[in-house]
Every structure is written in C-alpha cells, then in structure tokens.
Amino acid sequence: MRERRWARGISASGAFLLVLSLAGCGTGKEEEPKVDATEKASQSDENQELLRKAYRSIGEGDVPAALALYDDGIVFHVPGTNQLAGDHTGKAAVGATMRKFQELSGGTFKLQPVQIVANDGYGFVLAQASASRNGKTIAEEPMQLWRFVDGEPVEIWLYPRDQQAFNEFWS
User: Is the pTM of this model over 0.85?
Assistant: First the structure.
C-alpha cells in the first residue's frame, strides 16, 4: 500500500512520528545534541507562547496581529483539491488565505487550539475547527505542524482529520 504524502514529502506517518517526538513519547533512544537545558526549555516555552498568541489573535479575528508574529517568508501549506489548497507564501498570501476561510464561511469559521506542544524547531497544535457554508456545517479536529527558525514561524502545514470532508466543504 502506498503511503499518502503531504507538502514537500512529509508523510502522514512522518508527521505522526514528529508529533510523538515533540510530545516526548518517542520510542527510540537517540541522544539529543548537547544543549544548555535552560536555553532549550526557554526556546520551547517561547515557541509555545508564540503559538498561543497567534491562535488567540486568530480567534479574536485579528489576523494582522497573528501575521506580525510570523517570518516575512512564512509558507502555509494547505492540502487538498479545494479552493484554499496550495502553498501560500509570504505574510500577505497567508493573511489572504486566513481571511478566505472567514469569507467562504460567512464569518462562521472558528479555530480553537486544544493542545499546543513545541520545541526549538517545531510545534504542533491540535485544534477544533468549525464552520457553516451553503447550508452545510463542518466540525473537525485538524492538526497544524509549525516549523521555527530562530524563534520565528517559517512554515505551517495543515492536516485535516478528514481530507475528503475538508475538500468537499471548502470546494
């Protein structure tokens, strides 16, 4: 059976393993590079706080405040065969995509984080999302995988729980 792959070769199982690693549930006994524990914890804490701020701003409808937290070259990877799908590069394109979720849903789109985990290079957010559109509703639990460079988000991958339902709803 061929494994399904998303954005730039990251497979579903690869994303799952990264999430397990971030959550401290990895099964391997790989040695971590020698890094000052306070420095590492500090960057992880800062990245978690940055994600909290971003989702708070998005939840309040303040897209510019969320965008201010991102690297200028941020890339938002939205999978699928719907009108939101694609690689959206730069703050303007990412902001336009965020606003498009609201426009297409008549302002009903909601995204609420359930769990936020981050280390110095990656973070993931398990969320609850809902929206209404054309007499239909969607409620799902997507995952967003974030990549950080020097404490700034440079990439976001969206992983809907049910890609087919996501495509049908947003098409």
Answer: no
